[in-house]
Design a protein that fits this description.
Largest sheet: 7 strands, antiparallel
Strand order of the largest sheet: 10-9-11-8-12-14-13
Radius of gyration: 36 Å
Structural class: alpha/beta
Strand content: 15-25%
Distance between the termini: 80 Å
Length: 826
């Protein structure tokens, strides 16, 4: 090598300490550049619609998933869903990532999912009962187990020295059983009708199906262990896994245990390689993990086809969904169903009782399983969910409970070196329980993971190592980085709504005189879950907030008692409620309808948008159909729809605006349709103009722009103004609803209710403030005021102090008991 071409000295390899984002343009993010520290608790804050989820989940998590899948082989990737590359100039140093999102609501789970499966407690329970479980016949109480050749040898050698014993088997019924067949196979004697006979002396047509073939006749103390083992192996093989050991005895016994052969008394010992009762011969399945899994063959046949609402009433399995063979397995008197039907806190006690009686051998072989099970139970309990029963269906849980269970599962799995993105882990928590979540997040960090949280709770933000505040507004007014730094620094930033909220002594709504109830709806004798003979009054014409710590009974009272009660009143014939959990319902005669607003996704269709949800798209199409150009061309209202095949949608993209190109093993690419340039319509439809704008131009307007544009159409303008009243004036009319944040989706539901009122309605909201910034809560209260002003009534399940301060009536629960009701204590 020439002296002038010496290789330069390479710098020492340094550890990567941050995620690098450059030029991110996902959704409303405006070409942002950002560095996020790894190994820290990072909180993303900002008003609803500011771009937090776009940054956390649609950018960072999506890139982490994409890179993980690209590490698979080409043959493996063809079977996986392809993930688009986020729209950014550069994304670097993203670790393997997993996400716990708001979209994981109860409706996304199957009827088999429950608390145990979400937290993986049931996996540890199945392993424990498979490893230590004993099968006990429920009919006769005998222990059932599969025997080995060694156990036959041990029983023979345990006989009194000098006593005679015989190793036998019963021929199977599915083959020929003539004496000549068994003679040819090397056997010479059989026991039939109390006599031991030579096979040669039996008639050729003698059926040996009811007889016992003798493999060997031996004397205890003289026969070698090898000979006994060989005889036992032959008997088990010929007898289809079953054999009998006859030991000579002088003691009398029952007909089932003793047999008289040639005037001698023999004690019968049954052995089987199958799991069957030695007394009643009932068949069982071996205690394997899959036996205790309803989805892998361990399910109860009686309730397999029943709706979820009726599974708990199944008389066979009592709601455990386990087949009889699984329910027959026990560990020192404790059955799996005892644990499944208990709360998480009670299950910990049962598991400790089980393990306290283990032998030294059992203790040793189950050590890792027991440690993992106790760890997972402790995690769920430590997150404030110890009151939930292990087998409680995931469909009855709130979104906050689901996310905390999945957080417990992530910690219990002891993942290291990963990036965990969590959406609203504080959802549904009472402020006094917030520390539980923070402790869990620190456990993830202690396992050398990185955590990014999207949350608005002041306690979560103040505990962060690093805060990124987005905004300053929502939609087009958002998507920018307002602040990065520590929580203390954020409180000094006047441009940040989050900073102002943290700095203010109280963000609660003030200056509102409480409304007085015009009427009361009363539920008496409520008996459900932990609610016992409860009587609760709900005010009409008011904002009523039901609050309390986890497990207090909030959702049970409102979502599982009040809502079914009203449904059965408004539609007695069509109500699917089969088990009423209340004695009587009084009052509320002025109500004509019920509306339940939860946080489930609005729709999975990319064709649904804000205009269709508030029912203005039909009227906009009517406006265009009435123009002179439309009438001259013979265009009706349906021609301005991009959904109808007979309408004016683009034939190339079928009204989607994009064409998807399959690149085989690379991610699909979505390109704007060259035929319609992404407008979704044919050229002749776009030639029709109203005030110089086409239908595609209108769908590209924000709600505020459209309200001004259609100022001569009072009905249309009123619906668009409603979006402005609830803080969604920035929404583009044609924006797909699948791209909306949780807070935006919930307020859009409320707007739809405001614009389609049929009369006094009871509106029930579950976790109304989840995903909402304190600044958004005040807008939500304004939306509630609009609804109350036109005669509706509102009941909200929520623990937000801001919403409680705005309530006209507060119902506080704790442990299933009514603690207080009236005005909130601010």
């Amino acid at each position: 090598m020439n002296a002038g071409l010496e290789a330069p000295e390479l710098p020492a390899r340094c550890a990567i300490r941050q995620i690098e984002l450059r030029g991110v343009r996902v959704h409303n993010l405006k070409q942002i550049d950002l560095d996020l520290p790894l190994g820290k608790l990072v909180v993303l804050s900002g008003v609803s619609g500011s771009g937090k989820s776009s940054l956390a989940f649609d950018t960072i998590f999506a890139e982490g998933q994409r890179r993980y899948i690209e590490s698979f082989s080409t043959s493996a990737r063809q079977y996986l869903e392809r993930i688009e590359r986020p729209n950014a100039d550069r994304i670097a140093h993203v670790p393997p990532a997993f996400a716990i999102r708001t979209g994981l609501s109860s409706r996304t789970f199957s009827s088999q999912a429950n608390v145990g499966s979400l937290s993986e407690i049931d996996l540890s329970l199945r392993r424990l009962f498979a490893r230590l479980g004993q099968v006990v016949c429920p009919d006769c109480g005998c222990e059932v187990r599969a025997h080995s050749v060694g156990e036959v040898v041990a029983a023979a050698e345990a006989s009194k020295p000098g006593s005679r014993f015989q190793v036998c088997f019963r021929p199977t019924s599915d083959g020929p059983n003539s004496p000549s067949i068994w003679l040819a196979r090397g056997y010479s004697r059989a026991i039939s009708e109390g006599r031991s006979q030579s096979l040669e002396s039996l008639p050729a047509d003698f059926d040996l199906q009811a007889a016992w073939i003798v493999v060997d006749r031996l004397v205890a103390g003289r026969a070698t262990e090898q000979r006994i083992a060989e005889s036992a192996e032959a008997a088990l093989r010929e007898g289809n896994g079953r054999c009998l050991l006859l030991v000579e005895t002088v003691e009398s016994g029952s007909a089932e245990s003793n047999l008289i052969v040639d005037d001698r008394r023999w004690q019968i010992h049954h052995f089987s390689r199958h799991w069957e009762c030695s007394s009643c011969h009932r068949q069982f399945l071996p205690p394997e993990p899959r036996l205790f899994d309803p989805t892998l063959g361990g399910g109860c046949d009686a309730c397999r086809e029943l709706p979820l609402s009726q599974v708990l009433a199944c008389r066979d399995c009592r709601g455990t969904k386990l087949r009889p063979e699984a329910r027959a397995v026990q560990i020192h008197g404790h059955h799996l169903e005892d644990v499944l039907r208990s709360s998480v806190d009670a299950a910990r006690k049962i598991v400790r009782e089980i393990t306290s009686g283990l032998t030294t051998t059992e203790w040793s072989i189950s050590q890792r399983i027991r440690q993992d099970l106790d760890h997972r139970l402790a995690l769920v309990s430590g997150l404030g969910l110890g009151h939930l029963t292990v087998m409680r269906s995931a469909r009855t849980l709130t979104g906050g409970q689901v996310r905390r269970l999945m957080l417990a599962s992530a910690i219990g799995s002891r993942l290291t070196g990963t990036l965990c993105l969590i959406d609203e882990p504080s959802a549904g928590l009472d402020p006094s329980e917030m520390q539980l979540v923070l402790d869990a997040l620190r456990q993830l960090l202690n396992l050398r993971n990185s955590v990014i949280v999207v949350d608005h709770a002041p306690q979560i933000i103040q505990a962060a190592d690093y805060v990124v505040d987005l905004g300053p507004g929502a939609g087009p007014q958002g998507g920018s980085i307002v602040f990065t730094g520590t929580p203390d620094q954020l409180t000094r930033i006047d441009e940040s709504a989050t900073g102002r909220a943290l700095r203010a002594a109280s963000c609660r709504v003030t200056g509102r005189a409480p409304r007085r109830a015009t009427e009361w709806l009363t539920l008496t004798g409520i008996e459900h879950r932990n609610l016992r003979d409860l009587t609760v009054r709900f005010p009409l014409g008011c904002l009523c907030v039901v609050s309390g710590p986890g497990g207090s009974g909030k959702s049970s009272l409102v979502m599982e008692a009040l809502v079914p009660a009203l449904r059965s009143r408004f539609d007695p014939a069509g109500s699917s409620e089969t088990a009423l959990c209340w004695k009587s319902v009084a009052g509320g005669d002025s109500l004509v309808d019920l509306a339940v607003v939860d946080r489930s996704p609005l729709t999975r269709s990319s064709r649904s948008n804000a205009a269709t949800w508030i029912e203005v798209f039909d009227e906009i199409r009517d406006v265009f159909a009435l123009t002179a150009d439309a009438r001259q061309r013979g265009f009706a209202s349906q021609h301005f729809s991009f959904n109808a095949a007979q309408g004016g949608r683009c034939r190339a993209c079928r009204g989607t605006g994009v064409l998807r190109h399959d690149l085989q093993f690379l991610p699909d690419v979505n390109l704007a349709c060259p035929e319609c340039s992404g407008t979704r319509y044919r050229r002749e439809i776009l030639d029709v103009k109203y005030k110089g704008r086409s239908i595609a131009d209108v769908l590209s307007m924000s709600a505020a722009e459209a309200a001004t544009f259609f100022r001569n159409h009072p009905r249309l303008q009123a619906r668009l103004q409603m979006l402005k009243q609830i803080g969604l004036e920035y929404l583009v009319l044609g924006q797909p609803t699948e791209t909306l944040s949780g807070g935006e989706a919930q307020r859009l539901r409320l707007a739809a209710r405001l614009t389609s009122s049929r009369g006094p309605t009871m509106i029930v909201c579950d976790e109304a403030t989840v995903g909402l910034h304190p600044a958004d809560v005040s807008r939500l209260v304004g939306c509630f005021d609009e609804l109350l002003g036109i005669g509706h009534s509102i009941v909200v399940v929520d623990n937000s102090p801001d919403l409680r301060s705005a309530a006209d009536h507060v119902i506080d629960l704790d442990g299933g008991r009514l603690m207080r009701e009236g005005l909130a204590k601010v």
